[in-house]
Design a protein that fits this description.
alpha/beta; Aspartate Aminotransferase, domain 2; Aspartate Aminotransferase, domain 1; seven-stranded mixed β-sheet; five-stranded mixed β-sheet; 12 strands; globular; binds pyridoxal-5'-phosphate
Length: 392
């Protein structure tokens, strides 16, 4: 049989081999370790002469399936699964960096990634600097001989800034510096950074990959040599994904394409509805022509994603009244759920940044992030309309 070629088919038909029970749906391997057939096999497994299950901190059939599937979807050579998105981000950085090294990253980053760069890695003598997503000079001028990694998030959380992956991927290849892309907002269904020259993709599978707000998880996918370093680091430091969560996440990937199509359609409808609304100062969404990087979004993304940013008139006090008036939408820090979630980054996810740092990545006090869910979009729009009206 020829290999399945399409995203949806790979997402559904990548499975670990069926057991002697002939099950149709993949079983859960709730086991911490595996038995050896012989003393010789044990020796060979531990010396990496052969591949096989040993211990679930290293790998497990459920994590293997999740990773193999994600490798196919991202077009990556190899990968590992991690317990959370932050475990993936940290492992991708820490497994490569030594004291004296420098990381050049896009300024608009997930809050905890910013904390790793500013508060954790400097303790071990690793420095960083920030470049502006859309200004090429800030990238080329800040690369030094110590720059060992480039790290970006596109679209960024929550400002929805894009980085030109073709341009940065080419720069990374030319300078021989691996580029890591946090592909959490787009998922491989909308954007495949490895095709543009990125060396690794990191994921918070907690978001759209699970898509149902049930579990934390993460993954690192990409270049074989870099994944080998990440695997060594993870194997000995222990950020392993549990078999149960891996089983759930692999199941979730089966429906990623249909879910993302609907997330994107609902998000575009909501963004279009609120653009020009009297209570809304501005709307940001990559597939709205008013987005400053609309052309780039069209070029590197299949659709605009499930996140819409609304800047409400009336600043922080208005936002607080608005959040308290929502009846259907959830007020929660998560995103990428079937349920629409509204978040106020200034007072929650990005509250640890200084006012100046927030301003520089476009997080103004009136900004709310809407993770548009899979409810009927008319009901979501109606809820936001009533909350806007009652918060005036
Ligand atoms: C949520 C998120 C993370 C962290 O993922 P966890 O699974 O919560 O650890 C990293 N990057 C981005 C862009 C995120 O949205």
């Amino acid at each position: 049989m020829t290999e399945p070629r399409h995203f949806e088919t790979d997402a559904i038909r990548t499975q670990v081999p069926r057991s002697a029970e002939r099950e149709h749906s993949v079983p859960l391997f709730l086991t911490s370790s595996f038995v050896f057939d012989s003393a010789e096999q044990a020796r060979a497994l531990f010396s990496d002469e052969i591949d096989g299950n040993v211990y679930s901190r290293y790998a497990n059939p459920n994590t293997d399936e999740f990773v193999h599937k994600l490798c196919k979807l991202e077009g990556g050579e190899d990968g590992i699964a991690t317990a959370s998105g932050m475990a993936a981000v940290f492992t991708s950085l820490a497994s490569r960096l030594s004291s004296g090294d420098h990381v050049l990253a896009s300024r608009a980053l997930f809050g905890s990634t910013h904390q790793i760069l500013t508060r954790i890695l400097p303790k071990w003598g690793v420095s960083f600097s920030y470049a502006d997503a859309s200004d090429p000079d800030t990238w080329t001028s800040q690369i030094t001989p110590s720059t060992k990694l480039l790290f970006v998030e596109t679209p960024s959380n929550p400002g929805l800034e894009l980085v030109d992956l073709a341009w940065l991927g080419a720069l990374a290849r030319e300078r021989g510096i691996p580029l890591i892309v946090d592909n959490c907002f787009a998922t491989p269904y909308l954007q495949r950074p490895l095709e543009y020259g990125a060396s690794l993709v990191v994921h918070s599978a907690t978001k759209f990959i699970d898509g149902q707000g049930r579990t934390l998880g993460g993954a690192i996918i990409g270049d074989k040599a870099l994944v080998a370093d990440a695997r060594f680091f993870a194997r000995h430091t222990g950020p392993a994904l549990s078999p149960f969560n891996a089983w759930m996440l692999s199941k979730s990937l089966e429906t990623l394409a249909v879910r993302m199509d609907r997330h994107c359609a609902n998000a575009l409808a909501l963004a279009t509805h609120f653009e020009g609304h009297a209570d809304v100062e501005s709307v940001r969404y990559p597939f709205l022509p008013s987005h400053p990087q609309y052309a780039l979004a069209q070029q590197q993304m299949r659709a605009g994603g499930g996140i819409v940013v609304l800047v409400l008139r009336g600043g922080i006090e208005r936002c607080r009244r608005f959040l308290d008036a929502l009846a259907l939408c959830s007020h929660s820090p998560n995103l990428g759920d079937t349920r629409t979630i509204v978040t106020h980054p200034t007072s929650t996810t990005h509250s640890k940044l200084t006012e100046d740092e927030r301003q520089r990545v476009g997080i103004v006090p009136g900004l709310v992030r809407v993770s548009v869910g899979l409810e009927h979009v008319g009901d979501v729009i109606a809820d936001i309309e009533q909350a806007l009206a009652s918060s005036r």
